[in-house]
Amino acid sequence: MRLEARDLAFGYPGHPVGRGVTLAFAAGEVVCLLGPNGGGKTTFFKTVLGLLPAQGGAVYVDGADLATLPRAAVARRLSYVPQAHAGYFPFTVRDVVLMGRTAHLGVFAAPSRHDRAVADEAIARMGLDALAQSEYTRISGGERQLALIARALAQEGRIVVMDEPTASLDFGNQVRVLEQVRALAAGGIGVVMSTHDPDQAFLCADRVALFHRGTLLCADAPERAVTADHLRLVYGVEVRIETVADGAGGVRRVCVPRVADAR
Amino acid sequence: MTARGAGIAAGALVALGAVIFAAFAIGRYPVAPADLVALLWSKVTGAPHGVPATVETVVFGVRGPRVLAALVVGAALAAAGAAYQSLFRNPLVSPDILGVSAGAAVGAVLGIFLSLGVLAIQGLAFAFGLGAVALVYFTAAAVRGHDPVLVLVLAGVVVGALLGAVVALLKYLADPYNQLPAITFWLLGSLAATNRDDFVAAAPLVLAALVPLWLLRWRINLLSLGDEEARALGVETGRTRVAVIACATLMTAAAVSIAGIVGWVGLLIPHFARLLVGPDFARLLPTAVVLGAAFLLGVDTLARTAARIEIPLGVLTAFVGTPLFLWQLAAARRSWQ
Asked: Is A51 touching B (CB cutoff 8 A)?
């Protein structure tokens, strides 16, 4: 399973957001997208998923042009975890996760017993059993994010695209989501996620793609992509990259930003 | 189905049965429950009933067609409202949102203005209702680069306003002694003049539109997530939306063309049904159909019996609907936060 953007330009008619991005993702690896607010990460994701038409270049799924594939065929390969939203109608968490099965159903079909089993398994994997019958609109932001990841699991795409899965989560839930991201990769699923926290790239990414002014600055291993020079260029702040003991006998990198007038 | 779900389904059906029974029994010529049962029994079995012929005429000739029409109109408006509310992911949407009622009003008013026959007026109302929604749909389709659902709503508002102006102009030009009262009467909605043919014309259309809505029940749930998310989950939203709009419009146009403008049913009943059974369209649609039919038949029975003169149906649905709605608003906020 391979998802590939070739010389991709993305954005809206008359309002280009990014261009010239050539980047491939494979099942089983975790790729973190880093870039400033408004840097086009979400627009890039939507274009790669075929939700927005490419403004130039093309996206290929296993060599097939994404624009020629029916939506259900795309959805069976690529799962999408949007930024957690409040939802509109009070569907239960179980129904929300079941919606991930839609791409596997006929147009006039409703979910079968098998679909329910797959959804329940995804719910269990995210530790949401106790909330399965709760209304999605009434659970916390962190629980919603986990429910949307469970939905992506039920969708059974080989690559999962996550748009800032840790945004607006508390510290504990952030760590839980990152653990799930690694677990997915260990299970052979590819994860492409955007984040605002470069430390998360060190924690869970196999590769990091840095976006700067609508172009791809670099896509490389975390220690080569997340450097003081790159972060200064992309975010305009001074950062030191330090190593700390990871508590398991190895070392891990962390970003230490310099804050003016810090205590 | 859970025990609670079964209980709600049974309760809704019992309520519907009770309203139908009451609608046949109550009126200027009261029919005794025993006579009514005997008549219905003989209708089913073909056995002789021994009830006076006058009573039989009242039940089958006078009240029967009106009861059937009320059931169809109520079910159609509630089902269309449920579909539109899911489509526009908004629990406060009514079937008029894309201009079907406004279009039907122009058609009917034009028919009255041109002094056409009843059948032609109904046909014009039906055709203009469909035409208005087609106009809204194609206007919205021509606008690209925005959320398609939002554009549809805006186009609906604009076209609705334009059609409202056309109705106002026709009313202004109409003969104030003959045509204007007829126009006003039509715009207030009524089932007083319905006959068997109305039911025979409208029921198959409503049924034909209900079937695809039922078949698409799971995809309609996904439409309520919004266009992008539904597509990411594998739904061809454009096609699904066209099908849902076509069905909801067809049944609304059929209902409005025989009953005139009857508000509140399509907004209130789906909302109420969602509070009872939740937002899953597979349960929402049948619940809305049963409750809509029961509600409109109940209100229509009230319309013809509550006062010496017949109260316009649209007026009464508003009188009954608004307090119910306000009560709901105060009591339960969970279905629309």
From this structure: yes
